[in-house]
Amino acid sequence: MDVDGRTALHLAAQNTDERILSILLDHQARPWAPDDSGITPVDLGVENGALKVLAVFVAPWRQKCPDPSFEPQDSRPES
């Protein structure tokens, strides 16, 4: 963790390094862990528009999903 509370997963997401992301997630890195500013690795993937990064974050969840046809819904309120 650096002085701003950012983890290796934060840096890998920011740099869109899919290989390192996969390794870190395989070793139980927490994609929803916020840094000192409240920013998560997933936030960085979204901010960078890196769909490949987001796919790496979603892959373990999709493997555990009991219904392969299930698609998550956007839970954000409409503006």
What does this structure look like?
The structure is a single chain. The chain is 47% helix and 0% strand. By secondary structure, the protein is mainly alpha-helical. The longest helix is centred in the C-terminal third of the chain and has 14 residues. The protein starts with 7 loop residues before the first helix and ends in a 15-residue tail after the last helix. The mean pLDDT is 78.
Rg over CA atoms: 13 Å
Largest sheet: none
Element-level helix/strand string: HHHH
Shape: globular
Structural class by sheet pairing and helices = mainly alpha
| Strand runs, count | 0
Mean pLDDT: 78
Fraction in beta strands: under 5%
Give the terminus-to-terminus CA distance: 36 Å
User: Uncertain regions: pLDDT < 50 for 5+ in a row?
Assistant: none
How large is the count of helical segments? 4
Proportion of helical residues:
40-55%
